[in-house]
From TrEMBL:
Gene3D superfamilies given in the database record: 2-enoyl-CoA Hydratase, Chain A, domain 1, Lyase 2-enoyl-coa Hydratase, Chain A, domain 2
UniProt-annotated stretches for the region Disordered: 233-254
Segments of skewed composition (Basic and acidic residues): 234-248
Name the record gives this protein: Probable enoyl-CoA hydratase
Domain of life, source organism: Bacteria
Length: 254
């Protein structure tokens, strides 16, 4: 369900149901959650890369999983929610390479990447209203923060299909690259991050999420606390030493 490969400090995770456009099932969610926790806990992993096999990133929830029974969505979403919490709480940078369609919950998962690349020909659609549902997997939280409330309402209520270039213009992705170059560029970016100050990345990610709910005074206080923590790391010491010695830093992620 989820392929795993390690390269130079990067854990590459690939959603692997290409015959079903990587449509999401409970089994896939469990496998993805386990892989994310493995990457989080392995000290040799300093960045993660998430993509899909075949011609899609993910077409969203596999509705055939439920058969003829009426889904208990509230219970089912607990499996999604722990994956979203694992993605949002990752203390290592996450690159997402969107290789094809990202729809519904597939779009939600893609947007949790810290840096998001899309192939020419990839597409995005929220999709939920097309089957009479509300956004889930954190999309109601994340989308307005990325594109603003008015545009989020448009994307959620009308569910247009966005090209990779349109997604780039809205800030949903950071870069659009030729399909044949997608994994090369995404992996290069992930490897670059894997050589960086891992703890500073984690604290920066925490700061950005937390400040959405804080006043300026509270945000300044949190900056001071987290800067104090960053200032105690070996990577900070190395960064200062490299600055004084006029050489590139050699961060160890500690």
């Amino acid at each position: 369900m989820v392929l795993k490969e390690r390269q130079d400090g990067v854990l590459v995770l690939t959603l692997n149901r290409p015959e079903k456009l990587n449509a999401i099932t409970g089994e896939l969610l469990d496998a993805l959650y386990a892989a994310l926790k493995e990457g989080e806990e392995d000290r040799e992993v300093r960045a993660l890369l998430l993509t899909g096999a075949g011609r899609a990133f993910s077409a969203g929830q596999d509705l055939t999983e439920f058969g003829d029974r009426k889904p208990d969505y509230e219970a089912h979403l607990r499996r999604y929610n722990r994956v979203v919490e694992a993605l949002s709480g990752l203390e290592k940078p996450l690159v997402v390479a969107v290789n094809g369609v990202a729809a519904g919950a597939g779009m939600s998962l893609a947007l949790w990447g810290d840096l998001r690349l899309a192939a020419v020909g990839a597409s995005f659609t929220t999709a939920f209203v097309r089957i009479g549902l509300v956004p889930d997997s954190g999309l109601s939280f994340l989308l307005p923060r990325l594109v603003g409330l008015a545009k989020a309402q448009e994307l959620l209520l009308l569910s247009p299909r966005l090209s990779a270039e349109e997604a780039l213009a809205l800030g949903l992705v950071h870069r659009v690259v030729p399909a044949e170059k997608l994994m090369e560029e995404a992996l290069s970016l992930a490897k670059e991050l894997a050589q960086g100050p891992t703890r500073a990345y984690a604290l920066t990610k925490k700061l950005l999420l937390e400040t959405y709910r804080l006043s300026l005074t509270e945000a300044l206080a949190l900056e001071a606390v987290l800067q104090g923590q960053a200032g105690q790391t070996q990577d900070h010491e190395e960064g200062v030493r490299a600055f004084r010695e006029k050489r590139p830093p050699r961060f160890q992620g500690r």
